[in-house]
C-alpha cells in the first residue's frame, strides 16, 4: 500500500512540475497569445486579429488570444516570461533586452517609418534650434522613438537630454495622451508615433517640426519588429513558422487592401484606447509608413550603435544572432 501511495505521489509531483514548467514557455501550443500596440505601425497585428489569420495558419483547434501593450518594456517582459508567444514591438526594447541577455529573436519586421517630431503650437518653437532648454516627451526612456529623437538632436544639432547633462528635459508618457499634454502646456516637444502625430496635427494642438524622412533612421529602421522567444525558435519551429506565415499574410493584405486595412485600424484603435480616429488622420499617418515584413540585422545594428552612443546601452552592442530571417524566407 505504501509503495502504491509513493508511486502515486511521485506521479502527482511529476505532473505538477510539468504544469509549472519553464516560465519562458507557453503552457500548451493548443493556446497562444499574440501581443501588439494600438499604433499604426502595428496594423499587421490588428488585421491578423480581425481576419483571424493566426487561426488559419495554426493547427485546427488552437485558441489565439491577444494582449495589447502601452510600451515596449511591458511587452518584452511578457515575451521573456512566456505570457505571450510573439508579437510586434519597437526595435529599441527588443535590442535592449537582447543585449541584456534575453533569449529572443526578431523573425520579421512590421513596418518602417511613422515617427514624427512635433512642437506644441504655442511653445514658441519655430525651428529645431528653438528646442534648446525645452521639455520633450517620448513613450519610454530609451525606446525607439526616444533614440531616434535624441540621436538627431545630438548628431545634427549638438543638443542633449538632461540625462546626459544637457538642456533638454525628458519626460515620458503614452502617445495617446500627448495631445492633452500639449493642450495643458505640460510638454513642448514630442517624438510621436503615428497615428498620434496626425491626430495632434488635425486637432491643432501641435505642428510638425521634423517629419519622418528627416528623423534619425526615419525611413530605414523598422518601426515595429516581430519578436518571439529563442526557445520557440529552437524547439518549436513549426509553431513559429505558422505564426510568421499569418503575420506575412496580414502584411500582404495591408499592401493589397489599404482602404480596408485603414478601417480595421480605426476600429481596433477605438476598441483598445477608446479613442476614435478620423479617416483623414489615418490617411495622413499611412503616408508616413511602409508596411513590410523584411528586416535586416545591419540596420538594427546601426540603431544599436546609436543607442550606445546615447548611453542607453552600457557596452558596445553586438546583435549577432538577434535576427532570424529563415521564417520569412520560407
CATH topology term of the largest domain: D-Maltodextrin-Binding Protein, domain 2
- End-to-end separation: 56 Å
Average pLDDT rating: 91
What structural class is derived from the secondary structure elements?
alpha/beta
Radius of gyration: 21 Å
Signal peptide: 1-19
InterPro entries: ABC_SsuA_sub-bd, NrtA/CpmA_ABC-bd_dom
GO molecular function: ATPase-coupled transmembrane transporter activity
Organism: Pontibacillus marinus BH030004 = DSM 16465
Give a summary of the structure in a few sentences.
With 330 residues, the chain is an alpha/beta fold.
In words, what does this structure look like?
With 330 residues, the protein is of the alpha/beta class. It has two domains: 30-113 and 221-327, D-Maltodextrin-Binding Protein, domain 2 (3-Layer(aba) Sandwich); 115-214, Periplasmic binding protein-like II (D-Maltodextrin-Binding Protein, domain 2, 3-Layer(aba) Sandwich). It contains 13 helices and eleven strands. It has helices at 2-20, 43-50, 53-57, 72-81, 91-99, 144-157, 178-183, 196-203, 230-235, 237-256, 258-273, 279-286, 297-309; strands spanning 31-36, 63-68, 86-89, 104-113, 115-120, 135-138, 169-172, 189-193, 206-210, 222-229, 289-290. It has a six-stranded mixed β-sheet, with helices on both faces. A five-stranded mixed β-sheet has the order 7-6-8-5-9, with helices on both faces. This is ABC transporter substrate-binding protein. It comes from Pontibacillus marinus BH030004 = DSM 16465.
Amino acid at each position: 500500500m505504501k509503495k502504491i501511495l509513493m508511486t502515486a505521489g511521485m506521479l502527482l509531483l511529476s505532473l505538477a512540475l510539468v504544469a509549472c514548467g519553464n516560465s519562458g514557455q507557453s503552457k500548451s501550443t493548443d493556446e497562444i497569445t499574440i501581443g501588439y500596440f494600438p499604433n499604426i505601425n502595428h496594423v499587421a497585428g490588428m488585421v491578423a486579429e480581425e481576419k483571424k489569420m493566426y487561426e488559419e495558419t495554426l493547427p485546427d483547434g488552437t485558441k489565439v488570444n491577444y494582449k495589447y501593450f502601452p510600451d515596449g518594456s511591458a511587452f518584452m517582459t511578457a515575451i521573456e516570461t512566456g505570457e505571450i508567444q510573439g508579437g510586434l514591438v519597437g526595435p529599441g526594447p527588443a535590442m535592449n533586452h537582447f543585449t541584456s541577455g534575453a533569449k529572443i529573436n526578431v523573425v520579421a519586421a512590421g513596418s518602417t517609418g511613422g515617427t514624427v517630431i512635433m512642437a506644441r503650437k504655442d511653445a514658441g518653437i519655430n525651428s529645431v534650434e528653438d528646442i534648446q532648454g525645452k521639455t520633450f516627451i517620448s513613450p519610454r526612456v530609451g525606446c525607439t522613438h526616444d533614440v531616434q529623437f535624441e540621436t538627431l538632436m545630438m548628431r545634427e544639432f549638438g543638443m542633449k537630454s538632461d540625462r546626459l547633462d544637457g538642456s533638454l528635459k525628458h519626460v515620458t508618457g503614452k502617445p495617446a495622451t500627448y495631445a492633452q499634454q500639449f493642450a495643458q502646456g505640460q510638454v513642448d516637444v514630442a517624438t510621436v508615433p503615428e497615428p498620434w502625430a496626425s491626430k495632434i496635427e488635425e486637432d491643432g494642438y501641435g505642428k510638425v517640426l521634423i517629419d519622418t524622412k528627416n528623423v534619425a533612421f526615419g525611413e530605414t529602421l523598422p518601426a515595429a519588429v516581430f519578436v518571439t522567444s529563442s526557445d520557440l525558435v529552437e524547439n518549436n519551429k513549426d509553431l513559429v513558422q505558422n505564426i510568421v506565415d499569418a503575420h506575412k499574410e496580414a502584411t500582404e493584405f495591408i499592401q493589397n487592401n489599404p482602404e480596408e486595412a485603414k478601417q480595421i485600424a480605426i476600429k481596433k484603435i477605438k476598441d483598445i484606447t477608446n479613442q476614435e480616429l478620423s479617416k483623414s488622420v489615418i490617411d495622413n499617418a499611412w503616408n508616413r509608413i511602409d508596411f513590410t515584413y523584411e528586416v535586416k540585422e545591419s540596420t538594427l545594428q546601426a540603431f544599436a550603435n546609436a543607442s550606445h552612443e546615447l548611453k542607453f546601452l552600457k557596452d558596445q552592442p553586438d546583435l549577432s544572432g538577434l535576427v532570424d530571417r529563415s521564417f520569412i524566407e520560407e
